[in-house]
Specification:
about 450 residues; alpha/beta; Aspartate Aminotransferase, domain 2; seven-stranded mixed beta sheet; four-stranded antiparallel beta sheet; 15 strands; globular
Length: about 450
């Protein structure tokens, strides 16, 4: 095919065709179609579009534009903070990418789609085992919105109008939480972190009779492991719920799941479970809770049953969104979910299994601790906090973290996250993430590069 081959090229509408179209729809001119658009924002000149191109030329042009992007696979990545570079078994997307899954939308005649319902049921089951909870829904949009939904859910359960959230919860999660609750009469109160974790004593001072829930992150945004049992007791002592936001679910292969130490609702991000970074999305919102609260859970819930012949089947047990029931009875206005990403998570968890998940978590922890010990040995570099960590940790640098990142990028390394933009008191703090995809050699290269940069 060449650019000179015209039948497949875009041919503009002729004046006669335009007049016929306008006459058919009952208007005198194209301007009448634009009356709702303010005149001052309309474009009064033709679009500056390039000439039409043949398919092969378009593909070559788009490929050239794509090559200008800084693809993560060209860099050694030590960036985390809620989006994690993990190894994904090839079986995950070979199965999730099959046409019968890849093109499926939210089923409105759900029971005829038994394969999709069974896949969702398996995802829910494995998520409950991972989090230690009784029931999980079919998925939410992402970790931040799932946390917002959990807060609204806690308000509905307790009939209280205050949410207390730790500042060690990811700032984006807290921003979305405020967006969710701003017009619902829910008050948000923050408890400042101390030495990288949520202080139990200060939490007890803030919690009160109007507190619906305490929201913590586990592990938190600094990578530190919170004292979950103590924080759960503090919440329960005043009749509040404990919401645990989990941004790195692979940590639960090694750490005690929130359901085992008192969490009432577990929200969070499922991207690390078989989903690529995808330049920021789509991601996978997780939401699980105790059976007593199931009727206040937003979204959809798939259950198992038997038909009149005794054969096992799957159904949508709960559909408490406003699209299905009266608006005033709906638990959420979310009208879809991330079923494909949830399917990938289910395949991932099934592929690696319980022991594999633990092994991956152990590798993450070992390599992160090795990196932290080596980096802290560099003169002028010190650990940010003293609390235990999983696969992320904070360092305090003698050189601005943004400058360190710029110099690392020239060496093909994506450095950690400078925390100063979120936490002004941490202007010299650098959040580093190490997953199982980082080799010892890559960690050593990072250490050598940082040593050279900060000691010059």
């Amino acid at each position: 095919m060449s650019a000179a081959w015209t039948p497949h090229r875009y041919l503009p509408m002729t004046a006669r065709e335009r007049e016929e179209m306008l006459r058919t729809i009952g208007v005198a001119s194209v301007d009448e179609l634009l009356v709702d658009i303010p005149a001052q924002v309309r474009l009064t000149r033709p679009l500056q579009l390039p000439p039409p191109m043949a398919d092969v030329d378009v593909l070559a042009h788009l490929r050239g534009l794509a090559e200008r992007n800084g693809h993560a696979d060209r860099f050694v990545c030590f960036l985390g903070a809620g989006a994690y570079d993990h190894w994904i078994p090839s079986v995950v997307w070979h199965l999730a990418g099959r046409a019968e899954f890849y093109t499926a939308y939210t089923p409105y005649q759900a029971e005829i789609m038994q394969g999709e319902l069974q896949a969702t049921y398996e995802y829910q089951t494995m998520l409950c085992e991972l989090t230690g909870m009784d029931v999980a829904n079919a998925s939410m949009y992402d970790g931040a919105s799932a946390t917002g939904e959990a807060a609204v859910m806690a308000r509905d359960i307790t009939h209280r109008d205050e949410i207390v959230v730790s500042t060690a919860v990811h700032p984006h999660y807290r921003e979305v939480l405020r967006t969710y609750t701003r017009h619902l009469g829910i008050r948000i109160r923050e408890v400042p972190y101390e030495d990288g974790v949520t202080p139990v004593g200060r939490v007890r001072e803030i919690l009160g009779a109007q507190t619906a829930a305490l929201v913590i992150q586990f592990p938190n945004v600094f990578g530190c492991i919170e004292d979950g049992p103590a924080l759960a007791r503090a919440a329960h002592d005043v009749g509040a719920l404990l919401i645990a936001a989990v941004a790195e679910p692979l940590s639960l292969g090694l750490l005690a799941p929130p359901g085992h130490w008192g969490a009432d609702i577990v929200a969070g991000e499922g991207q690390p479970l078989g989903n690529f970074l995808n330049f920021g999305g789509p991601y996978l919102g997780m939401l699980a809770t105790r059976e007593a609260f199931v009727r206040r859970m937003p979204g959809r819930l798939v259950g198992a049953t038997v038909d009149r012949h005794g054969r096992r089947g799957f159904v949508l047990t709960l559909q408490t969104r406003e699209q299905h029931i009266r608006r005033e009875r709906a638990t959420s206005n979310i009208c879809t979910n991330e079923a494909l990403n949830a399917l990938a998570a289910a395949i991932y968890m099934a592929a690696v299994g319980k022991s594999g998940l633990r092994q991956i978590a152990e590798v993450n922890a070992r390599r992160a601790h090795y990196a932290r010990s080596r980096l802290c040995a560099i003169p002028g570099v010190r650990a940010g906090f003293g609390a235990p960590v999983f696969n992320e940790f904070v360092l305090r640098l003698p050189v601005p973290p943004t400058e360190v990142n710029a110099r690392l990028l020239d060496r093909g390394i994506l450095g950690g996250l400078p925390l100063g933009a979120w936490y002004p008191e941490l202007s010299d703090a650098w959040l580093i993430c190490v997953t199982e995809t980082r080799t010892r050699s890559q960690i050593d290269t990072l250490v050598d590069a940082v040593a050279e940069i900060v000691t010059r």
